[in-house]
Amino acid sequence: MRRFGKFMIGAVSLALALCLSGCNFGWKISYTYADAEKYTAGDRQITEKIETIDIDYLSGDITLSGTDGNAVTVKETSGKELDDKRKVHTWVDGTTLYVRYCASAKGLDLDHLNKKLEIQIPADCQLEKLKVDVSSGDFTGKDFEANGVNVYASSGDVEVSCGAKDIELRTSSGDITLTQHGESDSIKLHASSGHVNATVETAGKVDSYVSSGKLLIQGHFIKELESKVSSGEGEYRFAVTPEKSKIDHSSGTVTIFLPKDADLTGEFKSSSGKVLYDLAFSKADNKYVCGSGANEMNVHVSSGNIEIKEMNK
N or C: which terminal CB in the chain sees fewer CB atoms within 10 Å? Predict the structure, then answer.
């Protein structure tokens, strides 16, 4: 796979990208990428087999969904009539579909375009990889399968409902909502400023990090969990007790729901708060043991309570 890159020139920075959808300062932007001459401008339908989708979109909401059709369609709408330079650009290289915000050019006026992008893929299409980078806008992905999913939104929300072996969702300023189906080896969720709400069917490992916001993780089976929240409450619901879990919150109450018959050895520490529990723990020092104690859970809260509750009670 060829390597692509884009760069900003002069005084243009990420702040400009954040303004593209609503601000009008008369600024221009340089947006360049390799193999630009191979791209096609505007909406299109692709009948070739697509296994990888690589999207780089400066500003505007993106929706990707599985449908009953047998082709990949790319459709864009805008608040104004677009010339070819300002339309979405795509290139099919083998089984890889590259999607770029506009033409590769210097000094483009992209103010007030208010673009939105919709991509539809066959529902029975198993993607090898989905990679999305959107500077200012929301991403919504649903009803698709992939081996790898990697989505980053600089300023906007990310909502994904899919089945994938490896999932990584990141936002700098926005919420993350995940509904995972089937079995995943790894799930990574990182929100610098925003809430995280994840529903997990089966996962080998889940890593979550929230700098400032609330966290909710609901899991049928999560083998290993590592979660860190700098400022915000956390709620964890486990139908099956994880084999190993580590939960660290700097500020905010942590509430954990576990099966009544959980086999657990827990270390629960709150620097400024209480440890409250419904389960039949036996306690020795900082160790809390329930059942055989086979699974390990370490929970630390700097400021806030730790509450262990019975699932479905």
Answer: C
Of 223, 215, 134, 123, which is closest to residue 170 (Cα–Cα)? 134
pLDDT digit string, tens, across residues 200-242: 999 999 999 999 999 999 999 999 999 999 999 999 999 999 9
The confidence score (pLDDT) of residue 124 equals: 86
Residue ranges of the domains in the chain? 1-125, 175-313
pTM over cut 0.85? yes
